[in-house]
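Discussion board: Methods & Data

I've been asked by a reviewer to show the raw model output for two of the constructs in my manuscript, not just the figures. I'm not sure how much to include, so I'm pasting the format here to get opinions. Each protein appears as its amino acid sequence followed by a line of discrete structure tokens. Is this the kind of thing reviewers expect to see in a supplement, or should I convert it first? Here is construct A:
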Amino acid sequence: MSEQPILVTGATGKTGRRVVRRLRAQGLPVRAAARGGEHAFDWADPGTWDAALRGVRAAYIVQVDGTKLVRPFVERAARHGVRRVVLASGRGIDLPGYANDRDGVLEGLLDSEAAVRESGLEWTITRPGWFAQNFSEGFFADAVRAGELRLPAGDGAASFVDAEDIAAVVAAALTGDGHAGQVYELSGPEAVTLTEAAATISEATGRKLRYVPISPREYVAELVQQGWPAADAAAFADVIEPLRNGTDAYVSDGVPRALGRPARTFAAFAKATAAEGGWPA
């Protein structure tokens, strides 16, 4: 069994590559699957699924938002003899009014969760909130580089979760006991406003970062001016809504429940990223 690989889909993404690194640090065989990764895998091409699943004992499933591909994938995984799956889902999906969902992301997430629950396999569901790494390598990295974070988030806050904590939970669920049938909502240990986040990043990097709250209409107009299609700009403004409304400010217990330790603070994330040279130059 120990020679059977663990499949990690989305292996080049924020959590996937960290899960791969953690598993390999434990000396475990990993099949790192992505469109441009070590092992070619494409959610849109089911012809790549069998090669990814063959001989696998456990799988980390990072789904594509707005799709219902997890259900047929899990069914195929079961036929290949996969015994354990860990699904990356989303925090707040069972909270009415959590966010606008004009792209149908929620329906896909709910179907994916139902699929793994009904699969007959050992399953664990992770529901991370806003990633702290969105500031260093994601949505907000360009703004951090420019020194001004212009967002329609008002004075709202979020309990940003470190992707390293997400990866630690996923690795534990893929390899350890006691995680089957668990749903882990993942957050940091405290809510942080964007003003506080900007000040924390400024202190960690030694470079000034300023948060400027703007209206959703202004934000959409600025994105369109940058070349975004209007529909995409409006959809991304919807993504920011939980920050503005404070619906992602609550603290979840998934990290301490899964790992037996507190989640990493935003300040600790910022300092570690600076020490690793991970902030946008």
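Construct B, same format:
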Amino acid sequence: MTDDRVRAHVFVSGTVQGVYYRASTRDAARDRDVDGWVRNLDDERVEAVFEGPESAVEELIEWCHTGSPAASVEEVHVEYEEPDGESGFRVKWYEDQ
């Protein structure tokens, strides 16, 4: 890992479920070589963790404000944490806690 690796824990609200937001996030993360995961929450938000170079993570957070073409994002909340060694990027399902 490099010194500039960061971890962002992101919560996205709005119309973000049932509009390919998770799959689009996965694709956007992979395009930027960002590791982590994304999943739907019971309260209709989407939760994601992004880990990678600071510039790529920040670019992906900015992308989250628009998301997939069918999404209507109202808010993106970001909490920064210590990197945890995520590898690859995946969509988590409800049973993937």
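Answer (T.O., handling editor elsewhere):
This is acceptable in a supplement if you add a one-line summary per construct. For B, something like: The CA atoms of residues 5 and 53 lie 4 Å apart.
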